[in-house]
Structure formats: structure tokens, C-alpha cells
């Protein structure tokens, strides 16, 4: 899983590549809203202060060297 930010109202922002350019893809409830070229463009759709990065934590099975049990 790559980087991903979620916000209220079902908004989700993920990095993507469109053509040969990197964009920030804005979705709402799974529907594509826009491919933005800058963070300022993203701010037109969702308040940046409301976004939270989703971080996948490793499970003991994925990282046995760190698991003591």
C-alpha cells in the first residue's frame, strides 16, 4: 500500500501518474473528482488541515524479527 490521505466527507488523496506526470488524485466515496498537479489544487476540494495520512502497521506475521512471543 502506498501513501494515502483521507478526510471527512469521504475524501481520499493518493499519489498517481497520469501520462508522464505525477498527480495527486482526489476521490470522494470512491469516485474520481480530480487529478491535481499541486497541493494548492487539492485544497480547492478538501481542507488540507483535515487530511490524515493512513499508515499500515506491520503485523507480527509480516515482521517476525520484531515479534517476540
Please summarize what this structure is:
The chain has one helix at 39-43; strands at residues 5-6, 11-18, 21-28, 31-36, 52-53.
CA radius of gyration: 15 Å
Q: Which percent bin holds the helix content?
A: under 10%
What sort of overall outline do the alpha carbons produce when their principal axes are compared? Answer: globular
Query: Structural class of the helix and strand makeup?
Result: mainly beta
Question: Low-confidence spans: pLDDT under 50, at least 5 residues?
Answer: none
Largest sheet: 5 strands, antiparallel
Q: What distance lies between the first and last C-alpha atoms, to the nearest angstrom?
A: 27 Å
Order of helices and strands: EEEEHE
Please indicate the percent range of residues in DSSP E strands (runs of 2 or more). 35-45%
Domain count: 1
- Mean pLDDT equals 89
The count of helical stretches stands at: 1
Q: How many individual β-strands?
A: 5
Strand order of the largest sheet: 4-3-2-1-5
Task: Outline the secondary-structure elements.
Elements: E1 5-6, E2 11-18, E3 21-28, E4 31-36, H1 39-43, E5 52-53
Antiparallel strand pairs: 1-2, 1-5, 2-3, 3-4
Structure report:
With 69 residues, the protein is mainly β. It has one domain (5-66). The protein is 7% helix and 38% strand. It has one helix and five strands; from the N terminus they run E-E-E-E-H-E. It has one helix at residues 39-43; strands spanning 5-6, 11-18, 21-28, 31-36, 52-53. The protein has a five-stranded antiparallel sheet. Strand 1 and strand 2 form a beta hairpin. The radius of gyration is 15 Å and the shape is globular. The chain starts with a strand and ends in a 16-residue tail after the last strand. The mean pLDDT is 89.
Amino acid at each position: 500500500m502506498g501513501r494515502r490521505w483521507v478526510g471527512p466527507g469521504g475524501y481520499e488523496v493518493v499519489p498517481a501518474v497520469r501520462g508522464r506526470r505525477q498527480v495527486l488524485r482526489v476521490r470522494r466515496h470512491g469516485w474520481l473528482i480530480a487529478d491535481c498537479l499541486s497541493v494548492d489544487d487539492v485544497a480547492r476540494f478538501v481542507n488540507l488541515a483535515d487530511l490524515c495520512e493512513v499508515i499500515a502497521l506491520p503485523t507480527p506475521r509480516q515482521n517476525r524479527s520484531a515479534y517476540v512471543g
